[in-house]
Design brief:
With 731 residues, the protein is an alpha/beta fold. The chain is 43% helix and 21% strand. Helix 3 crosses helix 4. The protein is elongated and about 105 Å long.
């Protein structure tokens, strides 16, 4: 059975000293709670910070380590300075506000960044002490954004997953970060990258595209000759635990005591950690407006507000606490009567059973964060409503809102809307409450934390399988040796070589991608080999190809097979008319005007829209728009629309590389090699006989048998290296 190594900032236990003894208690956090339930069925090890300063527990460090290791928990000890700079500093004053889209609260300090890197390296060292390439290393959350790449460098074949439990901001906000490239490169060391919502996935993919220049397709990303997957996995809860806890007799007793205390007053529940992302002041404003507009509800409803202490030494949080205290005081003085308190305010944490009693007691849950990755409190409330009564008011800014559509979804910044939702919730008929609640409970029961874990791990298996398939297709040294051997043993041989992206790297303008001296040297040596036919097969126009390669004794296929040069004579292979070009040229030129940096190239019987120099975000949006438009326009016109590397090409369906190579394959060749990099080359690969060596340049899916990296100028890689070896070893 494979082992899973969970790595998170904190271990799922809290360590304290009581009566001179070290005491371990389970942590209440969402990650700890979720993974503690999920890890029951795993062979796992958990690595994380012990949660305290080494300075304060120095004499107990070995005792603590030994006790934790019995529970398969591996502690990392940090000194006070590292905690301040890494945890309180970079993690919570740089990443936390920025990722929650609060750039004005974000501070960026080089010294904190250096300690953040240092602590990520400490985590890497600890992981490497225990991990092998057989293990699954599952890294959690924003404190360890650099860790996937650090481990990848040391264990290149390791299976690494990363899950982020807070939002990922839009590109426009994320780009503020001075260390944005390092952060993205760190995360992309993982094989599977998970977020709570598709919005977070979209923001991340746009950021790696704009900042790292990495493209993606359907969430699959190809970079540095490896692929990885980015997807959404909404975190569930241990539904049965909350359902069963709510039905315990002790919970029922607590609920009974509370009901006697509150009598006939309806309760609106608000539970949050003290944080500016939670929207607590906005919630209090909404409750104030509700009471102002609806005086008939005074003395009939109270807001039970529980705020869990957090980061009390930080000035921003001190000020937030003061603001909340003042607002509660103002509402109380404004509306309070002898027998009724409008806001029941508790600044403290509660154990699970007490929370369960509050969940079961409350008629309405008011969960309205300004920004939240998921928010499990709202799910816990729903799971605790065993009689299916109650109403959930939920912020659209919480990740959970994407799932819990039967809640009353509100914009937390819209105070009037929130106040109106409170009235709607309090007046909702019981049968409507039960309908909504049962729908949400069905969903949460089905997609609980175990389901979340299994879906994530299944996706991990799928991407690893794809990686393995890709690795199997890579041209290994053994395969290269076989190609050279077969080439030398053959009597009649032929090479089909694509040009752009295969023999040369892509350039901003097509005319810049001219052959260099190295390529000319390779072509000259190939031409000197006996019984070898060299065919350059390209989408380029015949004029350019003839200018560049016309002096060689080779064949050339231009414009995907429309033109063919054999024995130094050009011939058009198909007679076509160009009546369609006038209409579609006007459309392409319109897109040029709408997309600065793009341009149209006109060939004899095709049109190409190039957008390599255009803004990535704009050009991708325009490309999708153009493809939809062309699909509608070209129906029944006998045209095909091809999407290449930063190009969209329109040509006749009768023109393709597969048709062109068929003419050569009528002859019997005992050695065939074909290499190309894009979708137009797939037609060529599909026509090749079984004994042919077909090579896809790049790491995308292909009908080709093997893959090679793209040629990069100055780097010894790609098809050029193989061709050089052929010239050096040919007999």
């Amino acid at each position: 059975m494979e082992r899973t190594i969970i790595v998170s900032n904190r271990l799922p236990v809290t360590i304290n000293r009581k009566d001179n003894k070290v005491v371990f208690t389970p942590s209440p956090g969402g990650l700890a709670t979720g993974l503690a339930g999920a890890s029951k069925d795993m062979d796992f090890m958990w690595i994380g910070w012990a949660g305290f300063s080494l300075d304060s527990f120095q004499e107990n460090a070995e005792e603590i380590k030994a006790s934790l290791e019995k529970q398969r928990l591996i502690p990392i000890f940090l000194c006070e300075e590292d905690i301040n700079q890494f945890y309180e500093g970079f993690s919570n004053t740089t990443l936390w506000p920025l990722f929650h889209s609060f750039p004005t609260y974000t501070s960026c300090h080089e010294d904190q960044w250096q300690v953040y890197k240092k602590v990520n390296e400490l985590f890497c060292e600890e992981v490497l002490k225990h991990a092998t390439e057989e293990d699954l290393i599952w890294i959690h959350d924003y404190h360890l954004l650099l860790l996937p790449e650090l481990i990848r460098k040391k264990l290149p074949k390791a299976r690494i997953a990363y899950f982020q439990h807070i939002p990922f901001p839009s590109y426009e906000i994320f780009r503020i970060l001075p260390w944005r490239e390092q952060i993205l490169k760190g995360v992309t060391g993982a094989d599977l990258i998970g977020f709570h919502t598709h919005d977070d996935v979209k923001h991340f993919l746009i950021s790696i595209q704009r900042i790292l220049g990495i493209e993606s397709k359907m969430g699959t990303v190809r970079a540095d000759e490896r692929i990885f997957k980015v997807d959404a996995f909404p975190l569930g809860i241990d539904f049965d635990k909350y359902w069963e806890t709510s039905m315990h007799k002790s919970t029922e007793r607590q609920v009974g005591l509370h009901r006697k205390q509150f009598q006939d007053v309806k309760i609106i529940l608000s539970i949050d950690r003290l944080d500016y992302t939670k929207g607590i002041p906005e919630r209090l404003k909404a409750f104030d407006v509700f009471l102002e507009k609806n005086p008939e509800f005074r003395e009939k409803v109270s807001l039970l507000m529980i705020v869990v202490p957090s980061r009390e030494k930080v000035e921003l949080y001190k000020n937030l606490k003061m603001e909340i205290d003042e607002m509660v005081g103002n509402i109380t003085s404004k509306y309070r009567t002898v027998n009724w308190t409008p806001v029941l305010y508790f600044y403290r944490a509660y154990p699970l059973q007490s929370l369960s009693a509050f969940y079961k007691l409350s008629d309405v849950a008011l969960i309205t964060p300004l920004r939240d990755g998921m928010n499990l409190v709202c799910k816990e409330y729903v799971a605790s409503r065993s009689d299916e009564s109650g109403v959930l008011i939920l912020s659209e800014m919480a990740g959970a809102a994407k799932e819990l559509s039967d809640a009353l979804i509100i914009n937390p910044y819209n105070i009037e809307q929130c106040a109106n939702a409170i009235k709607t919730a309090l007046c909702m008929p019981l049968d409507e409450q039960k309908r909504r609640m049962s729908e949400m409970q069905y969903l949460l029961r089905k997609y609980d934390v175990s389901k979340w874990t299994s879906l994530f791990l299944k996706s991990m298996e799928e991407i690893v399988q794809k990686q393995n398939e890709l690795a199997m297709k890579r041209l290994t040294p053994e395969l290269r040796h076989k190609i050279l051997s077969d080439f030398n043993c053959s009597k009649k041989r032929i090479l089909f070589l694509d040009y752009d992206g295969t023999l040369v790297s892509f350039q901003n303008k097509p005319e810049y991608a001219k052959p260099d001296k190295d390529l000319y040297d390779i072509m000259e040596k190939l031409c000197a080999i006996k019984n070898l036919k060299v065919v350059i097969i390209s989408g380029r126009n015949k004029t350019s190809l003839n200018e560049w390669f016309g002096h060689f004794n080779i064949d050339i296929i231009a414009e995907h097979g429309l033109w063919m040069r054999r024995d130094k004579t050009w011939k058009m292979m198909i007679q076509l008319n160009n009546e369609w070009k006038k209409e579609l040229s006007a459309i392409l030129n319109l897109f040029v005007e709408k997309t600065p940096g793009s341009f149209v190239e006109e060939k004899d019987h095709s049109l190409v829209w190039h957008y390599r120099k255009a803004d990535n975000n704009l050009s991708n949006a325009r490309k999708k728009e153009l493809l939809d438009y062309l699909q509608y326009l070209t129906t029944n016109m006998g045209l095909s629309v091809l999407e290449g590397n930063k190009v969209v090409e329109i040509k006749s369906v009768l023109i393709n590389k597969g048709r062109a190579v068929k003419k050569y394959l009528k002859s019997s060749f005992d050695f065939i090699l074909a290499a190309g990099d894009d979708w137009t080359d797939e037609d060529m690969f599909k026509e090749m006989p079984d004994h042919a060596y077909t090579i896809k340049i790049g790491s995308s899916l292909s009908a080709a048998k093997y893959t090679l990296p793209q040629y990069i100028q100055g780097v010894n890689s790609g098809i050029r290296t193989l061709l050089t070896e052929i010239t050096q070893n040919s007999q």
